[in-house]
Design goal:
Radius of gyration: 18 Å
Shape: elongated
InterPro entries: Lipid/polyisoprenoid-bd_YceI, TTHA0802/YceI-like_sf
CATH superfamily: Lipid/polyisoprenoid-binding, YceI-like
Largest sheet: 9 strands, antiparallel
Number of helices: 1
Number of domains: 1
CATH architecture: Beta Barrel
Strand content: over 45%
Number of strands: 9
CATH topology: Lipocalin
Helix content: under 10%
Organism: Flavobacterium resistens
Protein name: Polyisoprenoid-binding protein YceI
Length: 184
């Protein structure tokens, strides 16, 4: 049985986010600070992803002043409280193999020091010394004390309502850092 630890290459990995509201959507990226995935005989068995919340970027707002203002709002306590919580993490607890290259990863997602179990389907491309892992996680932001303009907590928001679910599309590249042979 071969177990290989793959270290995430932060410069080649990111998370694309999409948040929706009544009148449209916003999107951007968030960097991955660090992390790893463990593969056993080419199958995902575990891992951890640390997201750098301070790296959040907004791609759809092109006016520099508006973009800076929006970015400051996302960094504030209304959203991610980036000063207090500069990272968010996803710790893989269990993996279900759906096919040779598709896995359902379930784990603890921690945002703003609040942890809930979350999961998503991920596709793995394995090139032995490097892997690429992609997938989409849909998160209910209100579980993590991100309640700004949520219909669950505020009434009469009209077209200023922001939907509770937001999408995180993971695009991760990781390189093998060591390999161990063990017999079972």
């Amino acid at each position: 049985m071969e177990t290989t630890n793959y270290k995430i290459v932060s410069s080649n990995s990111n998370v694309e986010w999409t948040g929706r509201k009544v009148t449209g959507a916003h999107n951007g990226t968030i960097g991955i600070k660090e992390g790893n995935f463990i593969l056993q005989d080419g199958k995902v068995k575990g891992g951890k992803v640390v997201i750098d919340t301070a790296s959040i970027k907004i791609l759809d707002v092109t006016d520099p002043a508006t973009n800076t203002q929006f970015g400051g709002h996302l960094a504030s306590d209304d959203f991610f409280s980036i000063e207090k919580f500069p990272t968010a993490t996803f710790d893989v607890l269990s993996v279900k193999e759906l096919s040779d290259s598709t896995f359902y990863l379930e784990g603890n997602l921690t945002i703003k020091d609040i942890t809930h179990v979350a999961g998503f389907e991920a596709t793995l491309e394995n090139n032995r010394n490097a892997i690429a892992l992609t997938g989409k996680m849909i998160i209910d932001r209100t579980k993590y004390d991100i309640k700004f303009r949520s219909g669950n907590f505020f009434v009469d928001l009209g077209d200023t309502l922001i939907y509770n679910d937001f999408d995180l599309d993971f695009n991760i590249t990781a390189e093998a850092i060591f390999s161990e042979q063990s017999k079972n």
